[in-house]
Amino acid sequence: MAPSTVAVELLSPKEKNRLRKPVVEKMRRDRINSSIEQLKLLLEQEFARHQPNSKLEKADILEMAVSYLKHSKAFVAAAGPKSLHQDYSEGYSWCLQEAVQFLTLHAASDTQMKLLYHFQRPPAAPAAPAKEARRRPPPVARNTACGLWRPW
């Protein structure tokens, strides 16, 4: 039977720790088991390739995860470093695809059509801005007719 809250208040700090320790330990083990199960689900295809019909122990799952990460890290290192321009281009392309996909999911408005038209133009390579452009803030247009500030 679990002690009541009144009985717990009467316990010394050492006795409280003794009661709390098994609960904390169970929570820690549950977190570990949950994480191992998530690893198993993430690397399910890798496990099927190496050990198709075997029951995996926790140690097997951890070893396979370490092996997979080492292999992935070696593969990325073998691909070589990317140039800044290549990295910029890949990021721009990914962002462009995401933006176009988002814009095409919703009803077309004038702003969406302008954005889609703008995105169809070829991207400009990143260039170092001039010193004067860095010092001056970008121009800001204000719509005084309705009293709202808008950055465009």
TrEMBL record:
Subunit structure: Transcription repression requires formation of a complex with a corepressor protein of the Groucho/TLE family.
Protein's recorded name: Transcription factor HES-5
GO BP terms: astrocyte differentiation; BMP signaling pathway; camera-type eye development; cartilage development; cell adhesion; cell maturation; central nervous system myelination; central nervous system neuron differentiation
SUPFAM superfamilies: HLH, helix-loop-helix DNA-binding domain
GO cellular component: nucleus
Protein task: Transcriptional repressor of genes that require a bHLH protein for their transcription. Plays an important role as neurogenesis negative regulator.
Molecular functions per Gene Ontology: DNA-binding transcription repressor activity, RNA polymerase II-specific; protein dimerization activity; sequence-specific double-stranded DNA binding
Keyword DNA-binding set for record: yes
Organism per entry: Aotus nancymaae
Domain named Orange: residues: 88-119
Location in the cell: Nucleus
Stored PROSITE patterns: BHLH, ORANGE
InterPro entries linked to this entry: bHLH_dom, HES_HEY, HLH_DNA-bd_sf, Orange_dom
CDD domains from the UniProt entry: bHLH-O_HES5
Record-annotated BHLH domain positions: 16-72
